[in-house]
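Order emerges. As here.
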Amino acid sequence: MITGSINDHCSSDKSLGYGLRSLTRSHHQINNRGPADSALPPHHQATAEPLKDSRTAHYISERKEEVFAGFKKNKKAGAAEIPAATQLFTPHWIVRYLVENSLGRLWLLNRPDSRLTDQMDYYIAPVDEETDYLKVAGPEELKIIDPACGSGHMLTYAFDLLYAIYEEEGYAPSDIPGLILANNLYGTEIDPRAGALAAFALSMKGRARQRTFFTKQIEPNICVLEPVSFTSCELDALATGDDRADEEAFWNQFAHADTFGALSRPKRSAVDSVKQRFSVSGPADNGLFAQELRERAEIVIKQAEYLSQSYSVLIANPPYMGGKNMASRLAQYAKEEYPSTKSDLFSMFIERSFGMVAPGGYSAMVTVEAWMFLLTYKELRETIVTRKSIRNMVHMPYVGKGSTSMGTNFGTAATVIQNVADSRLKAAFQCVCYYETDSTGVPLTFPVINERYALLAPCEFTAVPDTRIAYWLSAGMLKAFSLGRPLAQVGVLDRGWRPRTTDVSSVCGLR
């Protein structure tokens, strides 16, 4: 019989959750606006960045510069480089947009009379009536995960929204923080320091709402994915079933967890089977070897539980890194496990999200815009348009100058996708350029209604060549794609007349 709680693993250092009580007061001051902030207009109060992200950015920035310098020398990113190379921090208004239009939307579908909309400034109401959505009986059934949670920015805002939901349902305020951390919020991460910050931030959220929260000893569900593997001798002690090959694959599936992270796809049936058998048998002896082996086995089971259960909502700013910068192990894994999305980490995470979200639930991510247009991602687009449903999108293109709301010189998109095959319902598509935002990248008005704003059924994209997400096209242009003939079917395209000289000034008569 194996003793000890599996919950002893896959959480942050307990000292971060409970040994830093002396920081409670200062953290409360950081995360709750004081008199100086109250003088700000409500729009800017709502978009103030949590300080924890700037702290994380500080510790990671120097390492990120070092890794990117290595890329210029053709070095590849392995487990040690991936956290620094792939982290991009999310502005608070985008966090709110993603959480409000996934978690908030799901709750409002289940509770049409809810007043939650009163505090959701970035919520976009459904254009058409939705009937096919995940049904939840109460707030404790809502499970939200950020599979690349970083320092917890997405989860801490989800905490705020969940608190309002519990309050609305009449739960006692003293019980709500513990219920949220025990039942609703989950995060996985490969960077131990970022994961510890996320756990700490959620603990402080609980303490800010309930003064005696730390006495309840509730640890946030943040799992730093650890590499764990077993020798043949150890596997002999762990294996209990008839299918040795499957059991070995299960126990060693996290051998490279610090590289693959949440891209690993444990089978729920295998998790339940191994967990049941392991709790009954486990290693035979009670010595130090068995204790150490049991602890590592429990880590594997817990990590597999996090990555195999079904969630109501997935929210993320997933890592992005092109295949050319991946070390050989990651590149090979991508090729084998994610053949249609292997070109970048972000696209693999989009595909992965669909396996983590329950039918009718939501995947809400801010990613590089490349998946919307490039031929490389044609198969991913076809999956999203024909087997899933885009419900909302804020596209933030880079127009060659200025910046984007993400502070980048490449385009991004915040997209809410429902895990249901019904693209006939209209979705709201917005385009936000730098000149439509303030100095911090926050839209001057929301929703942003301009020449590209569209209410469009995503199934219309099937008429566009290669299913590109060209949401701004007029009805006439979409019809032309359906009725017209591509130029390639008419003739061969080639360059026209050109002068012999390559001296432009001479050709133009400037001499």
